[in-house]
Amino acid sequence: MEQYDVAVIGGGVVGCAIARELTQYRLKVALLEKEADVCRGTSGKNSAVVHTGFNVKTGSLKARLNVAGARMFEGLCAELDVPFKRVGKLVTALTEAEVPELHKLKATGDANGVPSLEIVDGATVKKMEPNVGGVAALSVPTAAITSPFHLTIALAEVAVANGADVLLQAEVTAISGKEGSFRITTRRGAIGSKLVINSAGLYSDHVARLAGVRRYKVYPCRGEYFIIDSAKGGLIKHMVYPVPPKGGPGLGVHLTPTIDGNILIGPSAEYVRRKDDVATTRAVARKLLKEAQEILPAISPRDVIAAYAGIRAKTTPSSVGGFGEFIIEEVPECPGMLHLVGIESPGLTAAPAIALDVAQWVGRHLSLVPNGHFTSKRNGAVTFRDLPPEKQAELVAQDPDYGHIVCRCETVTRKELKAAIENPLGARSLNSIKYRARATMGRCQGGFCGPRVVDMLVNEYHVPLTEISLKGPSSSLFAGEVKDLTCTPQR
Amino acid sequence: MHTTEVDVAVIGGGPAGLAAVTSAKNAGAERVLLIERDERLGGILNQCIHDGFGTKVLGESITGPEYAQIYIDKLQEAKADFCLNTMVLDLTPEKVLTVCSAEGMRRIKAGAVVLAMGCRERTRGALGIPGPRPAGVYTAGVVQNYMNLRNIMVGRQVVILGSGDIGLIMARRLTLEGAKVECVAEILPYPSGLARNVVQCLEDFGIPLYLSTTVTRIHGTGRVKGVTLAQVGPKWGVKSGSQRFVECDTLMLSVGLIPENELSKKAGVALSPVTGGAIVDDWFQTSVPGIFSCGNVLHVHDVVDYVTLEAEAAGRSAARYAAAGSLPSSPIKVKPGQGVRYVLPYQISGEDAVEFSLRALAPEKDRHVVFRSNGQVIRKMRELMVAPAQMIRVKLRADRFPKEGEITVEVTE
Fold first, then answer.
1. For residue B370, what pLDDT is reported?
2. What pLDDT shows up at residue A294?
3. pLDDT value at position A485?
4. How many domains does chain A contain in total?
5. ipTM for the predicted complex
6. d(CA A197, CA A159)
7. Whether residues A273 and A207 fall in one domain
8. How many beta carbons lie within 10 A of that of residue B328, not counting itself?
9. Which residues 222-241 of chain B have a CB within 8 Å of chain A?
């Protein structure tokens, strides 16, 4: 049985940030993820926003980690070569009656130390966002967007590069033993570990229970989104938020530009029974469009290219609503295990700061000795599409694989696809490739490039046809060959 | 970056591009170039291994690859140049193309450009079918690609949403290869595909076609486990109590095609909200002088033969524009009237005879197609049956046209 110093359960952005943070020290670290790739849960299905912290309760742990995380974010993204854009945010009041709410938000933001907040009038809103209505807005110039996929993947890759083991498809089924000698049974076998960190997100209550800790309950609260064609991406420059609904479990339906030039509409907020119920629904779809059109009338249903849903890991049940506090604690029932529960929004923003806190906790149990060779510098994927033509021409001259465009909608080259397929985590599903290289993400949703990516997997990477999947085992794409003939694909 | 010059550049090597570049060359354009992003010419025809192609222009019914080969042979006879594995990344209103291939990136300055990029399929995302996002949701063209070009079976138990022609063809193909096609659901009260395909692909194989029916939910998180079918009322509202679960491992969508005009937009070409294609005159010239459009990128066709005819005309116009630097203006507007969804071209010069393409709004029996101008009927013809699935083509001689003003086209009693 492989022995580790620290086992991190959960490959979301928080778990991956923790794993990376700990690999600076002389520690043997394992990251256990139940899915076929990292970033498959809440971390990958949200608004991709780096929040400033103007709407969290002053003095709370959440406020501290949010503001600290936001300060670290840009530097971390630069180091990891992950997209980060400070596009700014407008919280718009659609009626005069909502204006006092803006002043309340500003006061909270000022108290939390959020810089440069300003209330602007309707004319200024019009100037900043000509397509958006509103009588006034809270301008939040330091708010930013990122790519949660790229960030989470980058954090995991840096952890691996610095010696961590990332085990995919390794759902934890049992935890026994005690501090210094935990035994963690997974679907890929058992490992031993001195300390355990439960960053299992939606399933953190379940993982705690496996270790005999019964005090947590996570309430899944679904948020549905629409993705708008990048052709309409120019309609807004900033994130545009409504005044948050009072006592609601979410921030209200907002419009968020994405790193890839699309606009996200959403999320809704609806408590659901199952933690894996990421279905989108007709009723919410209608409501989302209607609310989005109130803010941005130029949006039409024809511009929608896809929908998705994510689940918030809330500690407040629907009868209470609102937002709970982040829980990050070691409890007497199980010393040597740290639980991170209820890391809902702004969990993505707070992740780097949470990782620092967790490292301090590890330091109280094991000595933190820098290993001397840690490097967080990483060269991310080249995005051919975003380069000027001269630079593109240069790349093609260097490597013909850059000249071979496989995905037409997102202009993804063969070179970029090869890099995505050969990722250090060994994730090979179509979604893993999509989140790394954008192929199948565009307006044709893989109609053109899908078969070409499959060709590469079969012919160049020798993946058996029946093992090609959308997101891992049990989501296979094909039934086999036509007529089940014995002919093998050309190699 | 290296820049070369051509007289006529044609973007897209499917049936439209093949016919356009060959006719441009035959009409006297010296330097022509067909640019294709795939590794072979022929476009979607290559995966259409069923027959039914060529009945209008060749007088016989042949398969897609055979049809493509005939026009590839014509291209080679005409000695028209082409390049493969080459993507056009940009097109300017000045007709400068930026193209990319493994050999390098370069610019091409063209005297005239023919847009022949074809269309793409509408996807689940565009329809907004509720439910989780499992594997096993495919568009019909993608299933056709996997089966016919790659020998891959996508599933064994299939529900088809939409009765477009490719969906019908694939219902038959999947059945012949041992899959169980449970049914075809069509939200409209009539089929979207051609009548011959409904008979030959569904009725002959006992596959039920449910009209005024749609998929209201997809089930399954890993792979599709089934769908919920429901009947819809007049405004596509779901009839309560009509929902039922149908088990399947695949949902195949055949719910419409969208002209692929992203490059056209870059060049500033004006598009019609009805067809999704360019607004053209009888030269097939778009709102940008010297840029022409034909085939499915202009409007989605029912049969490939008409694509060929249209593209040959567009190629001739492009050659003429490249030589002369301009074409006669087109002052006569053409407008869809009662019962007509759209009519092409949108304006005409009146210089020569024009072949109009139009589609009816709804299926009806015993109708008349009526062309009116300045209050007078200039052409009236009887149609025993009209259907939105079937394009109506009408040729009018030049002497029928007014000098100016507009022509209205109606489908009436």
1. 96
2. 86
3. 52
4. 3
5. 0.93
6. 15
7. no
8. 14
9. 222-223
For the cut 80, the answer to whether the pLDDT of residue B26 exceeds it is yes
* E strands, B254-336, in order: 257-259, 291-293, 332-336
In a domain, A491, yes or no: no
Tokens of A114: 């959020």
| Residues A349 and A438 both lie in one domain | no
Average pLDDT of chain B is 95
Cα separation, A11 vs B157, whole angstroms: 35
Do the beta carbons of residue A330 and residue A337 sit within 8 Å?
yes
**Any CB–CB contact under 8 A between B256 and chain A?**
no
As averages over each run of 10 residues, the pLDDT of chain A (491 residues) reads 97 98 98 97 96 94 97 97 96 93 95 95 95 93 96 97 97 97 97 98 98 97 93 93 81 90 93 94 89 88 88 94 94 98 97 98 97 91 92 96 92 95 94 90 84 95 94 93 59 29
Alpha-carbon torsion (A26, A30, A36, A42), positive or negative: negative
Chain B residues close to A34, C-beta within 8 Å: none
**Domain range enclosing A242:** 86-142+219-314
- Identify whether residues A186 and A286 lie together within a single domain: no
The residues of A annotated as belonging to the active site are 51
Task: Tell me, yes or no, whether A273 and A295 share the same domain.
Answer: yes
In angstroms, rounded to a whole number, what is the distance separating the alpha carbons of residues B278 and A156?
47
Query: Distance of alpha carbon A305 from its chain centroid, rounded?
Result: 20
Q: Determine the pLDDT at residue B73.
A: 98
Interface list for B 365-404 with A (CB within 8 A): none
Tell me the C-alpha distance between A423 and A446, whole Å. Answer: 20
How many distinct structural domains can be found in chain B?
3
B residues 25-44 lying closer than 8 A (beta carbon) to A: 37
Tell me the one-letter amino acid at A196.
V
- Would you say residue B191 has pLDDT above 70? yes
Q: Say if B154 is an interface residue toward chain A (CB within 8 Å).
A: yes
* Residue pLDDT, tens place only, B94-110: 999 999 999 999 999 99
Count of CB atoms within 10 A of residue B196's CB? 11
> What does the alpha-carbon distance between residue A442 and residue A455 come to, in Å, rounded to a whole number?
19
Q: Which residue range forms the structural domain that includes residue B6? A: 1-121+257-327
CA-CA distance, A250 to A224, in Å (whole number)?
A: 11
Whether A489 is in a domain gets the answer no
Please report which residue ranges of A211-276 form alpha helices under DSSP H: none
Which of B30, B3, B20 minimizes the C-alpha distance to B322? B30
In this complex, is the C-beta atom of A293 within 8 Å of any C-beta atom belonging to chain B? no
The CATH number covering residue B111 comes to 3.50.50.60
Residues B320 and B348 in one domain: no
3-state secondary structure of A203: helix
